[in-house]
Amino acid sequence: MRYSESFLHGALRGAGFGFAVLAIGLAYAATSLYSDLPTVGSGSMVSSSAWNQVVGYANKAVKQETEVITVSGSNVGIGSTNPKQALQVNGKILVGGGPFSSAFMGNGNSNISVVGGISNDQFARLTFGNGAEGNYAGIGMKVTGGGSYLYLGTSNNYTSGITNEAIVIDPNGKIGIGWETVTNDCVGTAYNTCSVSCSAGKYLTGGGCVVDGSIRYVYRTYPSTSSQWTCHTQANLENAGSILRAYAICANIR
To answer: How much is the pTM?
Structure first.
């Protein structure tokens, strides 16, 4: 069974609100139930232009001053006349009505879900920005064979998109805040002091010192700045191969 564009056009021009809504409902139900009906923009008798006429007359029937729904190829826009994705909504979205659950853990009762086709080492991302793709910040879920990771990222260069993994929660619920351990080896007899600094933008959470190949001992070890750790021995290292190693534990904290 097929409907031509002229039939849709004529029927909708001659009908009021009730028939416009009924036509959209029937078209949706028919395309859902019968695989032999043409799809929008497939080159068949029902083109995206025809569907836009259907939706346009329905908008007018309910006295909308501007278009609410637009079909462009296989994309649908709500509040957008030129949707760039399968569904583009320009405006606020309200999700309500439940069902709601008394428990967070477990399966089911999700109010908003991103599902289907996510493989190991792939991300499902919710991003924020001004372009077609969010480039200011984002929340991501990574799937692995051992469980899922949740990421929170921001950007210090919008052209490059998200530039850091500010917070990562592993499958066991442990939180990483961009931590790193950095070291600096001061080798030889010229040294009784050694310092190490965090990478740019990171700050100390701790540090320490190690002496290797020497009988000297560390008598002072402390944070010399908010991002640097310093070590002192009681005298210069006595051997050319002696090492005074400073290390710092750093993280994305402020």
So the answer is: 0.55
